[in-house]
Design goal:
The chain has helices spanning 5-15, 29-45, 61-66, 87-90, 93-103, 115-125, 166-173, 180-187, 202-212, 215-222, 231-239, 241-251, 273-283, 286-302; strands spanning 2-4, 51-53, 75-77, 82-83, 106-108, 130-134, 149-153, 162-164. By secondary structure, it is of the alpha/beta class. The protein has two domains: 2-168 and 253-302, Rossmann fold; 177-251, DNA polymerase, domain 1, CATH 1.10.150.20. The strands form two sheets. Strands 5-2-1-6-7-8 form a six-stranded mixed β-sheet, with helices on both faces. A two-stranded antiparallel sheet has the order 3-4. A hairpin with an 8-residue loop joins strand 7 and strand 8 (162-164). Helix 5 runs antiparallel to helix 13, helix 8 packs across helix 12 and helix 10 (215-222) crosses helix 11. It is elongated and about 70 Å long. It comes from Phytoactinopolyspora halotolerans. Residues 1-267 form the 5'-3' exonuclease domain. GO terms for molecular function: 5'-3' exonuclease activity; 5'-flap endonuclease activity; DNA binding. Keywords: DNA-binding, Exonuclease, Hydrolase, Nuclease.
């Protein structure tokens, strides 16, 4: 099980009141929410391996060089490249990392890459079933029934998440799962600063991808006067030519990230109980911590996952 950790703690932060605080008044809604999410996911799915994937670089240079608008609207400071994050959430991220360490839950972020790229690399490399937990549709491109890679999509909440496989992608968008990145490139995504092709929505994008398979073939057809593209669609594609020639490499999740050699095994007991107890007391994690520990203990006693 691969966690898109920022997706989860952002959801916890905005979904749980900030009045959930530590004894000293510090908000810990994101910390407690993430712990509750992990407890529920471990209980429901019984993974034998779990990795919290982190954004070591939320706006990688290789994507920005190709498409300067990539996540540009989220910049808090153009000079430093810092992301706009509520201060009361930013203060909780180091606590989350400390708690994961004390629990013994593996986490990793790789300099120069987003969590999506870490997830993509591990999902492709792993030989067994993989569940990716995220609220980000971009990761639908990883869905692969043959390799048993699916998405636990949390857009409506972890408790109401949707299990997304290739049939779900096809039912939602009318395309094969493997074509989702090309589909997203055409449609665009304002939340990531991807303009898409003006005038091309979901239905047109799906029609074009099903006809031409990928962006490269579609661009070639737009430049071919003999192709059977309508004049209107051809003009839209040609107007977006510069974007289309680079956007595919921006949208595509990388699968070649150098992942450090770490143990992803789900712990049956905390890595450091003394530190964990101190963190639990200091930050008032009580019930949330108990639920995680109960889930880990139950998983350890259950042995091999079903």
């Amino acid at each position: 099980m691969l966690l898109d950790t920022a997706s989860l703690y952002f959801r916890a932060f905005f979904g749980i009141p900030e009045k959930i605080t530590a004894p000293d008044g510090t908000p810990v809604n994101a910390v407690r929410g993430l712990l509750d999410f992990i407890a529920r996911l471990v209980t429901d799915y019984r993974p034998d391996q779990l990795l919290a994937c982190l954004d070591a670089d939320w706006r990688p240079a290789f994507r920005v060089e190709l498409l300067p608008s990539y996540k540009e609207h989220r910049l808090a400071d153009a000079a430093t490249g810092a992301e706009t994050v509520p201060p009361t959430l930013a203060a909780q991220v180091p606590i989350i990392v400390e708690v994961l360490d004390a629990l013994g839950i593996a986490h990793v972020g790789v300099p120069g890459f987003e969590a999506d790229d870490v997830i993509g690399t591990l999902a492709v490399a792993h030989t067994g079933p993989v569940d990716v937990v995220t609220g980000d549709r971009d990761l639908f491109q990883l869905v692969n029934d043959d390799r048993e890679v699916r998405i636990l999509y949390t857009a409506r909440g972890v408790g109401k998440h949707e299990v997304v496989d290739e049939s779900v992608v096809t039912a939602k968008y009318g395309i094969p799962g493997s074509a989702y990145a090309a589909f997203a490139t055409l449609r665009g995504d304002p939340s990531d600063g991807l303009p898409g092709v003006a005038g091309v929505g979901d239905k047109t994008a799906a029609t074009l991808i099903n006809r031409f398979d990928d962006i490269e073939n579609l661009v070639a057809a737009a430049h071919d006067p003999g192709s059977d593209l309508s004049p209107t669609v051809r003009r839209k594609l040609l107007d977006a030519d510069d974007y289309l020639r680079v956007a595919g490499d921006v949208v595509a999740v990388r699968t070649d990230v150098p992942i450090p050699d770490i143990d992803f095994a789900l712990p049956g007991a905390p890595a450091d109980r003394l530190v964990l107890d101190a963190l639990t007391e200091r930050w008032g994690l009580g019930g949330s911590m108990n639920r995680v520990l109960s889930a880990l203990t139950a998983q350890d006693q259950a042995g091999e996952p079903a």
